[in-house]
Predict the structure.
Amino acid sequence: MTSAYGPTGATGVVCPYCGWPDDAEPFQLVSRHSTAAGSTVWTRCGCGSLQVRAVDGRGARVVTRSRPPAGIPPTRTCGTRG
């Protein structure tokens, strides 16, 4: 499933924009919010992609993410190839 902002739902195990594993650092913690099921964590990948992570009894997973901002070069530590 995709949206205007990029892949959504169970997005796999790596960032589709830079290839960095979703469960690895570095990522920037933007905010954390408690929910009835656990928490929602907003993070930013090294490439600039904003990610929403659901944290519950099944663990943490990226449930949606945006594309990296246009014109901003990715952080080299995020796994960008090139």
Notes: The mean pLDDT is 77.
